[in-house]
Write a structure and sequence with these properties.
With 313 residues, the chain is α/β, with parallel strands linked by helices. It folds into three domains: 74 residues, Nucleic acid-binding proteins (OB fold (Dihydrolipoamide Acetyltransferase, E2P)), CATH 2.40.50.140; 159 residues, P-loop containing nucleotide triphosphate hydrolases (Rossmann fold), CATH 3.40.50.300; 60 residues, Orthogonal Bundle (Ribonucleotide Reductase Protein R1, domain 1), CATH 1.10.40.50. The chain contains ten helices and 13 strands. Helix 2 crosses helix 7. It is globular and about 70 Å long. The chain binds guanosine-5'-triphosphate (GTP), magnesium ion (MG) and zinc ion. Magnesium ion binds next to helix 6.
Amino acid sequence: MKQRLSKKIGNAKSLTKKCQHQGRVITRYGAELILLDETGEHIRCTIRRKNENIACGDVVCWQPNHQGNAVVTKVQARKNALSRPDRRGSPKAIAANIDQIIIVCSWLPKPSWMLVDQYMIAAQQINADAIVVMNKTDLAEQYASDKDWQALKEYESIDYKVIATNALSGEGIDKIQQELADKTSIFVGQSGVGKSSIIAQILPELTIKVGEISQSGEGKHTTTTADLYPVGNNGFVIDSPGVRDFTPAKLDTKSIRQGYREFKPYAKYCRFNNCSHTHEPNCQVKQAVENKEIPAGRYQRYLVKLTMLMTAE
Ligand SMILES: Nc1nc2c(ncn2[C@@H]2O[C@H](COP(=O)(O)OP(=O)(O)OP(=O)(O)O)[C@@H](O)[C@H]2O)c(=O)[nH]1
Ligand SMILES: [Mg+2]
Ligand SMILES: [Zn+2]
């Protein structure tokens, strides 16, 4: 076990400059961090400045101080970070050094395809892969609409992997496990969809708290910090607190356009370089939607996102 973990941190080391002790941030509570060190031990560590920009998944250098505590001396350069707007609307990193975003949806709470698209845009922005997990298959018959099935089919048609799971029975969990080797994967999505329950199935030896379903059918918020766990074959998974409201991150038109990655092969043939794919003549993206080469549902949501952006400005 120890050997396996030290190999992992060793991998992280290659990204970084040399330092005395190195660790990966498992979780952060204010100015306190829990680190996974090179030997696979957990180290409690403090940050010198409380508002320092350190998130779960960061690689840091640390050293023991005279009081017998450990202190962070340096934060290694990040490959990327997934951010979410804080109370004031400024982006705050919730996790760093991410290879893959696992977007978890369920049949209850009902799926928000706008939110799924939002995470796909975020994935594109930070150069990470995205996978959709449709959890709570046991509730599909009761709650799934034709429109929802259609949305899932559309994602598959543009080469997003869609995995159906039931985190209570364990159905489909092996398919997620196959996607985790050698990567850091963050589980994101609405509160109550079953992110922590899925991770608990992947790592049954850990005791991960999951929420109860309240009367309204909405999951009670349980996960409050982003937490990182090592998984087999050099992988890491990050559980993250579910989103409760759908305040979208501030995006510009360019990021939205790039986020709808299936537009790309057509957009280069639009008459205008900066075509917004809304009203312009000779727009090849609109043409591809008409030809059913680009899914209509995705294009509709793209238009809604652009409108939301215009009205927010
Ligand atoms: N019926 C059913 N219930 C599930 C399934 N997966 C999870 N649940 C239940 O859904 C509720 C919420 O699960 P969590 O795993 O806490 O959800 P979460 O996404 O981690 O929620 P936050 O931490 O608030 O973001 C719990 O009561 C779970 O038991 C499933 O496949 N089917
Ligand atoms: Mg949770
Ligand atoms: Zn166009």
